[in-house]
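Table 4 source record.
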Amino acid sequence: MPSASPQPELVLASASPRRRELLGRLGIAASRVVATDIDESPLPGELPRAHAVRLAAAKARAAAGQAPDAVILAGDTVVGVGRRILPKAEDEETARACLALLSGRRHRVFSAIAVLAPDGLLREALSETIVRFKRLEPAEIEAYIAGGEWHGKAGGYAIQGSAEGFCTWLAGSHSGVVGLPLYETRRLLRAAGLAIA
């Protein structure tokens, strides 16, 4: 009787601890992490949905050069208000501007994933979640800024932290807003040959 094919190696093309934690909820762990360094600047006229999909695929391809025989999982999360792509907040001024824009209104979170198999087949999926924030008082914004959770986060907030207390309504994938939509991730990894219960 022929032996079962070995489980392919899974490489996570992200240094994000949030994505590693979410992946663990599926009962699997990446054998290693390959952080990619790509230009994440939006292209002229690029919309939030297309931006997320393009970056996830680019990260997967960038990591494949360091792990050619592995299944590569990459993701990108973009917060959009209309046609506008909100930045990843790297300073207080940017985070404050993002929160002021999100205050009292709905926005969309696009979380794209790309799974690249060793044979070069790229599988892609996109989770789109609508989030509504309460109207934020200036003191609430300043308290959130002081806590530091915003640093490096798309749209200047982390839903898995105290910003969840601002969220009055969410339609879609909570894990996608955190950074890795688990339904789509499980589906694509299974299609790529990983054994996931």
